[in-house]
Amino acid sequence: MRARAGWLGVLALVLAAAIGPTARADIIELSVRIVDEQGGPHAAMPTRLVVGSEPSSRRADAGARLIADADGRVSRTLEATIERRWSTGDYLVPRRLDTLSVGIELDLVGRRALYWVRLTDHGRRGASIGIETFVQGRDGTFDAPLRHVPPASWQFPDQPGGLLMSDIGVKPRSWNLESDTLADGRRRWRATIELTKQVFARR
């Protein structure tokens, strides 16, 4: 019983430290590169980058509108907060998972789509990536996910029975998320994402 009580006390301290009295913004250095299916850069491509913790991040006017350079790259540096949660997973001791959500707005078959990318730092195991595709709903907010049509097709949510796509419009090519601690105690995150933009032929 004492061992159990001791373990619960340690867990409570860890969670209290994680929550903290106030959350301080981190420095986010974000770099996104868009390439075609042959690996060539999409130079001069217009896009928009927004971090998930920015106000009204799913709105069409959130974040920054940018034009890709000759290498197909767009970049932003800003202050934002990282999503932090604790998980035991396969471990007995809880470990912190830090997740950065990034919205990347691109064209999808003549419509604007927001690719919602989630990079999660797993420490020594590196970072994992997840991507969802959203189009604009009735109020213009990017909150309408593509509709999955089994077994392996996707469709715009407001066009049932319409165009079928074989994928969501982009594929992750490479990614990384790493951080260090600044002199003032804040974390600085460097996130790099490379996406292959898919092209769909109408049939």
Please supply descriptive tags for the structure shown above.
203 residues; mainly beta; four-stranded mixed β-sheet; globular
User: What level of helicity do the residues show?
Assistant: under 10%
Beta-strand content bin: over 45%
Low-confidence stretches: 1-5, 7-22
- Report the major sheet: 7 strands, antiparallel
* Arithmetic mean of pLDDT: 87
Shape: globular
Secondary-structure element pattern, one letter each: HEEEEEEEEEEEEE
Distance between the termini: 68 Å
Number of helices: 1
Structural class: mainly beta
In total, the number of strands is: 13
Radius of gyration: 20 Å
Report what the structure shows.
The chain is mainly beta. It has one helix spanning 2-19; strands spanning 26-35, 46-51, 64-67, 73-80, 83-87, 95-108, 111-121, 127-136, 142-145, 147-149, 153-155, 170-181, 187-197. The relative contact order is 0.19. The model is unreliable at 1-5 and 7-22 (pLDDT under 50).
A few lines on this structure:
The protein has 203 residues and is mostly beta strands. The chain has one helix and 13 strands. Strands 2, 3, 5, 6, 7, 8 and 9 form a seven-stranded antiparallel β-sheet that branches. Strands 4-1-13-12 form a four-stranded mixed β-sheet, with no helix packed on it. A two-stranded antiparallel ribbon has the order 10-11.
